[in-house]
Give the backbone structure.
Amino acid sequence: MKTTVEGAKTTTTLYVGGIVYQNDTLQFIGHEEGRVRWTNHRYLNGATAYGFEYDYFLKDHLGNTRMVLTQEKDTAKYMATMEAAYRTTENQLFYNIPQSSYPRASVSGYLSAEGVGLRSYVEFNLKKTFYATGGFEYNYQQTTVSSQQTTSEWLQSGLIGISKVIAIKSKMFKKTKVQLLWDFLSYEQPIRTQPLKFRVGYGF
């Protein structure tokens, strides 16, 4: 039996032959080819249940374990969705999540009912279908500051760039406008947004 103390936590490990208990809970049973673990299973339908899983040890000529093969199947998917609803879990799995995330409404082309925007633009024809574009935007949206804090505010954008009008042979869409814009006020936002924006608009 072995007892370890880490701060206020005390762990007691009991060895009975090839069987190992930790704080009176079965951990695994050793056998000549590996071990059998008593583990909690989490199923896709949300149910959980305990059961045995078999691990097999592959050893070298000196008897050292070089690889462990298991029957256990892990169906979990570890993804960084960057969504605020999963922020606490993803902060434990990944690094730099709060620093690399930004509001969805600031992504060019993203349609959302979470915000309201006001836009004012002017355009000057440069040559045929090319235009110089400039304007200001005010977007009211919810911004994620940290895993436990959000704020709603008006974010100001100042945009300049180039637009090109493309004619489309379609009964529904007569013209398509493609824009490449630089937001020179993005560096002053409470949370940095992407300075370059690519947009596509359709004329009916």
In short: Helices lie at 87-93, 97-100. Residues 102-203 form one domain. The chain has two domains: 2-70, 102-203.
